[in-house]
């Protein structure tokens, strides 16, 4: 009797499901770190930001363009900004400020951060701009849903009837779509704000998009997509193998 089965997919005790679980665990950890970015000044958390807005330390990078009517705007604003080097970072749930160079102060409460500052620290009210951007545009809930769904798949991916595997694929597809929407949303919102802020400040402010946040976003999307594709392929191979077995036993 020919015994054709899917054992060739398993290397001793490591089964495909373990690899998928490793991927899902990574997705959960990466997404949690992304959501936790800027929530405390501990370790590298201030580095996981979506948008950074800061003063150019007195230097002006006045944009040059025929549509610019007041060529002196940058210099005029620099006279207000003086040597300010203040920076604000926006995360999904919190903000970090860099009032003293090299040390970050982070909080979910922008008001409590504002209480630490004087008008000379933040002459253009950049903290306010960051707080409004955070409150009105950042949307962490799709990422939270997606991390939750990843956990559900992680639990239910164990040896289970085919119907559960199909459910796994559907749930995974949903979670991956949510991450994709979040990453694109994050990207469009941050680049739009970054460009507008730099131009409106006439080159007295700089902005940057958090590279780690971008990498984390795309990485969790990639890992989740691989998992969904892997489970789908696994179901297909299993069906084909089952077909061979049926033919062999006939
Ligand atoms: C934020 O901080 C301010 C001042 O420290 C305080 O009055 C306010 O209640 C805080 N808000 C929240 C939601 O904790």
Could you please describe the fold and organization of this structure?
There is one protein chain. By secondary structure, the chain is α+β, with helices and mostly antiparallel strands. It is 56% helix and 10% strand. The chain is built from seven helices and five strands, in the order αβαβββααααβα. Strands 4-3-2-1-5 form a five-stranded antiparallel sheet. β3 and β4 (103-107) form a beta hairpin. α1 (16-36) packs antiparallel against α5, α1 packs antiparallel against α7 (211-249) and α6 (162-200) packs antiparallel against α7. It is elongated. The mean pLDDT is 88. Bound molecules: 2-acetamido-2-deoxy-beta-D-glucopyranose. 2-acetamido-2-deoxy-beta-D-glucopyranose (NAG) binds at residues 109, 111-112, 115.
């Amino acid at each position: 009797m020919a015994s054709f089965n899917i054992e060739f997919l398993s290397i001793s005790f490591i089964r495909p499901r373990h690899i998928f679980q490793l991927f899902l665990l990574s997705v959960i950890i990466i997404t949690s770190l992304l959501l936790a970015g800027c929530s405390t000044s501990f370790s590298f958390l201030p580095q996981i930001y979506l948008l950074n807005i800061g003063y150019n330390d007195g230097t002006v990078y006045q944009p040059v363009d025929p549509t610019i009517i007041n060529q002196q705007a940058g210099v005029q604003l620099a006279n207000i900004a003086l040597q300010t080097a203040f920076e604000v970072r926006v995360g999904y749930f919190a903000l970090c400020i860099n009032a003293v160079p090299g040390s970050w102060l982070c909080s979910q409460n922008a008001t409590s951060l504002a209480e630490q500052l004087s008008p000379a620290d933040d002459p253009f009210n950049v903290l306010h701009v960051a707080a409004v951007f955070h409150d009105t545009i950042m949307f962490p809930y799709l990422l939270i849903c997606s991390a939750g769904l990843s956990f559900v798949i992680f639990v239910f991916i164990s040896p289970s009837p085919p119907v559960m595997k199909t459910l796994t694929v559907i749930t995974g597809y949903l979670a991956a779509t949510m991450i994709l929407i979040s990453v694109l949303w994050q990207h469009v919102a941050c680049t739009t704000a970054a460009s507008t802020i730099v131009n409106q400040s006439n080159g007295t402010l700089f902005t940057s998009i958090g590279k780690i946040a971008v990498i984390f976003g795309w990485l969790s999307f990639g890992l989740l997509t691989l998992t969904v594709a892997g489970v789908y392929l696994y179901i297909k191979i299993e069906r084909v193998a089952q077909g061979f077995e049926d033919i062999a036993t006939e």
